[in-house]
Structures are given as C-alpha cells and as structure tokens.
Give the backbone structure.
Amino acid sequence: MARGTKFTEQDRLAIMLELLSRKESFAAIRRKWDISETYAYKLRDRALQSLRESIGRSASGPILEVQALRRKVAELERLCGEQALTIRQLGTGGR
C-alpha cells in the first residue's frame, strides 16, 4: 500500500516558500513543521528545480517562437520568388 503524506499540496508549497525565503533558520522551519532534514532538503530542491525549469521555459519560449517565425517568413519569401519567376516565364511565353 502506498504511503500517505501528512501534508497537503498547499502545506508543501508553504514549506517550500519558507525554506526559500530564509526568514527563519532551516532548523526552525523543520521544527515548526516537524519534518526531517532530508525531507526539507527534498522540498527545497524540488522548488528550486521547478523555478529553474519555469524560468528556462519563459526565457526561451519567445526566442524559439521568433526563430520559427523567421524560418517561416524565409520559406514564404522563397516560394514567392519562385512564383514570380514562373509568372514572368508564362507571361513572356517562356522566352
């Protein structure tokens, strides 16, 4: 049977925020919430990892979108150029 947790998701978030804010000592937060040192580090590390991933996505998201749009514009310009040449050749009878 899976082991349950005594903390809700909201509790874990509150603990993470307290650990990251450093307004209280690590030991004081552990005593307040009655958590082990290992669990406290696990929560802190999970919060830091989530922040890193979130920052990475938000920073690279627009950059990747701009790059994709630039590739699309370049492809459309190439297609327009080819069509212009075809129209010119058809208009002059292929001469």
Q: What stands out?
A: The chain has one domain: 9-91. The longest helix spans residues 37-91. Helices lie at 9-21, 26-33, 37-91. Residues 9-91 form one domain.
